[in-house]
């Protein structure tokens, strides 16, 4: 649009720029400074204290394992959901609405939901007992059962976080022109070939943003872990929370925050590199 | 289910494939719904319900009393109101600041547009809740620590980039020609916006507002770090989690779920349109 009064767009974006500068850029710089300073002078003391903490290695390992276990499963389920729902005529809206319900559910609530199933007298144990697999109530969520606890947290995360991936992927699938698939079908491509050669490359932008969003959120995992296992399963954000609230040590908490930021940024950059997307399709 | 027109010899094959399709769909629906049903049983079953063994999954012995008892616990109603307050601030600010930016992105070409988009994209790559750590220090200095306004501000950082991207898409969906026609007929820019663009964009903006609400309602970390007495519902539940009995935890979970599920239901039409465009 031709516009002579070019100050108008600046007037329109100025409030949001000012807001983000004050509450995003400034705290970001402050976090980094808090992390790499001690009493106002540059220092690596906070980082050293973080690295020597007994929970540090475990929390790094747990967070990464969780992300590696959860994100691919979510993408796979979301792709299955997208493919299934595209074959449905009437009832499609209702199915999509049910599948998007977890979108409104917080990680804390999701943790509490799965706690009702996985606690000692919960539904999982009742079913296993009914089937004769276990003889008495078994605890799955204590520090003595780290593998069961890991699976419990992963299941709750998958339950909650798949909806957003599904929405992004279904939107991506909606934008794939029907003609492409029809043409491929005419030339004799089977469903598998059509999926791998036509659909998957065309939903690349959707896949990319779903992966970035989900991976960043996976490294932020916190409340679902806390609701299910308390502090039995240390993760990075949980450690940041503990150092800030219980130990009142802002410096170490800030190092954790910076570490999470660096991991998230690295993951984002890797996705941007590996999954090439036509720059015109970026927002 | 739609009727599939098929010839006799492929009918068996097709129907078994349809059977497979529908059992997959039903299984995934159950995967979403059954856990919510079970936590509702837990919330309404009270103390006896929690210790009942083995459980049946049938709604026996449930009543609203345990849930009401939970609501009467000290701090619950207040934290519920605090959550509403923080979400209200988030909705108002992210729309007031985000919608003009979205309009600028949709209608103007200007120097710095790409940098602005980069700023917005950057916020999506960061774990934003982490910003709450240094903010405690500034908030204490400014008197915003332990206030709902302070929580609303940090939640706006989460919701604002989203609002800018989504409203951009919404304004792009309103034909430019309608606006230009209004100018030709003597409307000023502001009049044209108010009379033509705003009414057409309104449903989408309402949907954006609902999303901002849900983002704030569900956020745990920042709210927990930035408040002590004036906690939001999520922050309150997080801090009392280890001390409260099981059925209170389930009641809290149910209370967190209900409003956002209702809101998501209200904007279900916009879900895919919004994310389709904002995820590009």
What do these coordinates show?
Chain A: It is found in: Cell membrane. Chain A: Belongs to the binding-protein-dependent transport system permease family. Chain A: InterPro entries: ABC_transporter_permease (IPR051393), MetI-like (IPR000515), MetI-like_sf (IPR035906). The complex is a heterodimer of chains A (283) and B (280). The model of chain A has no long low-confidence stretch (mean pLDDT 88). Chain A contains 13 helices and 2 strands. Chain A is globular, with a radius of gyration of 23 Å. With 283 residues, chain A is an all-alpha fold. In chain A, β1 (37-38) and β2 (41-42) form a beta hairpin. Chain A has a single domain (54-281), classed as MetI-like fold (Orthogonal Bundle). Chain B has 12 helices and no strands. Chains A and B meet through α1, α3, α4, α5 and α6 of A and α1, α3, α4, α5 and α6 of B.
Termini separation of chain B: 32 Å
- Residues in helices of chain B, as a percent range: over 70%
**Main sheet attributes: strand count, strand direction, barrel closure of chain B:** none
Mean pLDDT of chain B: 87
Instruction: Name the CATH homologous superfamily of chain A.
Output: MetI-like
Q: Show unreliable segments of chain B.
A: 1-6
Largest interface: A-B, 104 and 105 residues
| CATH architectural designation of chain A | Orthogonal Bundle
Q: Can you tell me the overall shape of chain B?
A: globular
Q: What count of helical segments of chain A does DSSP give? A: 13
**Strand-pairing-aware structural class of chain A:** mainly alpha
Tell me roughly what share of residues is in helical segments of chain A: over 70%
């Amino acid at each position: 649009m031709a516009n002579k009064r070019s100050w108008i767009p600046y007037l329109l974006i100025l409030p949001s720029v000012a807001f983000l500068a004050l509450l995003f850029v400034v705290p970001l710089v402050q976090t980094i400074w808090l992390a790499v300073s001690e009493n106002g002078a540059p220092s690596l003391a906070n980082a050293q204290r973080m690295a020597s903490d007994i929970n540090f290695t475990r929390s790094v390992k747990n967070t990464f394992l969780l992300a590696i276990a959860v994100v691919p499963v979510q993408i796979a389920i979301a792709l299955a959901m997208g493919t299934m729902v595209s074959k449905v005529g009437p009832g499609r809206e209702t199915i999509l609405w049910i599948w998007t319900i977890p979108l409104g559910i917080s990680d804390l609530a999701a943790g509490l939901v799965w706690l009702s199933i996985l606690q000692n007298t919960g539904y999982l144990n009742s079913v296993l007992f009914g089937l004769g697999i276990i003889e008495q109530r078994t605890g799955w969520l204590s520090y003595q059962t780290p593998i069961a606890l890991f699976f419990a947290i992963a299941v709750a995360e998958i339950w909650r976080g798949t909806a957003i991936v599904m929405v992004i992927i279904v939107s991506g699938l909606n934008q794939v022109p029907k003609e492409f698939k029809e043409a491929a079908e005419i030339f004799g491509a089977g469903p598998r070939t059509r999926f791998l050669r036509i659909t998957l490359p065309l939903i690349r932008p959707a896949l990319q943003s779903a992966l970035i969003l989900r991976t960043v959120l996976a490294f932020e995992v916190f409340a679902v872990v806390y609701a299910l296992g308390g502090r039995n399963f240390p993760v990075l954000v949980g450690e940041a929370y503990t150092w800030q609230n219980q130990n009142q040590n802002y410096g170490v908490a800030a190092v954790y925050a910076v570490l999470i930021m660096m991991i998230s940024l690295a993951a984002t950059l890797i996705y941007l590199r590996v999954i090439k997307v036509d720059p015109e399709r970026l927002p | 289910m739609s009727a599939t027109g098929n010839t006799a010899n492929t009918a068996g094959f097709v129907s078994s494939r349809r059977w497979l399709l529908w059992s997959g769909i039903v299984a995934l629906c159950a995967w979403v719904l059954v856990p919510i049903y079970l936590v509702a049983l837990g919330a309404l079953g009270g103390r006896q319900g929690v210790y009942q063994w083995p459980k049946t999954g049938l709604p026996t012995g449930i009543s609203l009393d345990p849930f009401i008892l939970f609501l009467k616990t000290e701090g619950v109603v207040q934290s519920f109101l605090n959550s509403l307050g923080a979400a209200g601030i988030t909705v108002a600010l992210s729309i007031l600041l985000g919608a003009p930016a979205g309009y600028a992105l949709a209608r103007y070409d200007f120097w710095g547009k790409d940098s602005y988009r980069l700023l917005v994209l950057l916020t999506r790559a960061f774990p934003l809740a982490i910003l709450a750590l240094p903010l405690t220090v500034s908030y204490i200095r400014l008197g915003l620590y332990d206030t709902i306004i302070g929580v609303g501000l940090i939640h706006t950082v989460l919701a604002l980039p989203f609002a800018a991207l989504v409203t951009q898409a919404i304004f792009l969906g309103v034909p430019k020609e309608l606006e230009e026609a209004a100018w030709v007929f003597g409307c000023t820019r502001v009049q044209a916006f108010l009379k033509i663009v705003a009414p057409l964009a309104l449903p989408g903006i309402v949907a954006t507002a609902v999303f901002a609400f849900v983002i704030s309602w569900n956020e745990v970390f920042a709210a927990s770090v930035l408040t002590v007495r004036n906690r939001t519902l999520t922050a309150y539940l997080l801090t009392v989690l280890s001390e409260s009995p099981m059925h209170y935890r389930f009641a809290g979970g149910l209370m967190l779920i209900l409003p956002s599920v209702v809101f998501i239901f209200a904007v279900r039409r916009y879900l895919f349109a919004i994310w389709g465009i904002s995820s590009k």
